[in-house]
Each structure stands twice: as structure tokens, then as C-alpha cells.
Design a protein that fits this description.
By secondary structure, the protein is of the alpha+beta class. It contains six helices and six strands.
């Protein structure tokens, strides 16, 4: 960095929100059923030594669930929020698939800022039902203006 001031640039994106009468626990169980589990470090190791692309893809896809996605990180906000009087279940996931992410990043390196995807699952305030929210990654690439990124 040369000491210059940062550039600020506005962008837009699309946020997807699903509300359901199903319980938080039921939704979480369903998500877990369809999403594999790994760590970013494990995925990175699959490419160590400049593995051929086909080998990398095969090894990484083995981590994915039947949805094609894998969970990298789970942050359970529920426990610490109780300290502040918020008694709701709140869970943040970081999940994705590097093979899918590549289809966006190859067109716009800044799309890597939105891969993997972040998802928020929370218990509705009334305690009845749950909500899932995530930002559509393809809506962020190139400020949401690239048709190539949106098609990924």
C-alpha cells in the first residue's frame, strides 16, 4: 500500500430470505442433511503441489453433500446473545463449493469476496418458525452488472 486514501465504491446486491413455519431445529436438521462438511484448510490441501485440475475437483467434490455444497464454518450466536437478553436461536454458516466459486472468480477476481457464501438461520421472534437469509453471490460480482457473473 502506497499510503493513498482508499477508494469507496457503492454496489448493490440481492438478499434472499425464506420464512417458514418449520422450527429452527427442523430447518437446521434439513440443511445438515444436504450439506457436506469440511474446512477451508482441507480444501486447500487438495490443491497442494499443484494437483491436476481433475484430481482437485474429484477430491473436493467428495466433501460436498447432495446439494453440491459443503459447510466450512458454523458460528452459533445463540449462546453469547443470551448474555444480552436475546434468547433466540441464531446460527451463521459459511458454506459453498470452490468448483462453483471458480465459475464466478475466473471472470472477476473480486467475486472471491463473496465466496464462500454466508447464510444466517434464526428463530423467528415469536418463537414460531425460522428464517434463512443469504446474499446472492452472483448479484455482487462486478457491482452486480456483469451478465457473465450473474449467469454463474
Amino acid at each position: 500500500m502506497s499510503g493513498k486514501l482508499p477508494t469507496l465504491r457503492s454496489f448493490s446486491g440481492q438478499r434472499v430470505q425464506y420464512q417458514t413455519a418449520r422450527s429452527f431445529d427442523d430447518v437446521l436438521l434439513s440443511l445438515r442433511k444436504h450439506v457436506g462438511h469440511t474446512t477451508v484448510s482441507e480444501v486447500n490441501q487438495q490443491g497442494a503441489g499443484r494437483a491436476p485440475r481433475e484430481d482437485f475437483e474429484k477430491r473436493v467434490e467428495a466433501f460436498a453433500g447432495d446439494s453440491g455444497f459443503m459447510l466450512f464454518l458454523e458460528v452459533n450466536h445463540s449462546e453469547w446473545l443470551q448474555t444480552f437478553g436475546i434468547n433466540r436461536k441464531v446460527l451463521r454458516w459459511v458454506f459453498g463449493n470452490p468448483i462453483i466459486a471458480y465459475t464466478m472468480i475466473r471472470h472477476d477476481i473480486t467475486a472471491a469476496l463473496f465466496a464462500p457464501v454466508e447464510l444466517l438461520l434464526y428463530e423467528n421472534e415469536s418463537g414460531g418458525g425460522a428464517t434463512i437469509i443469504y446474499d446472492l453471490p452472483s448479484s455482487h460480482g462486478s457491482g452486480g452488472k456483469s451478465s457473465i457473473i450473474r449467469s454463474c
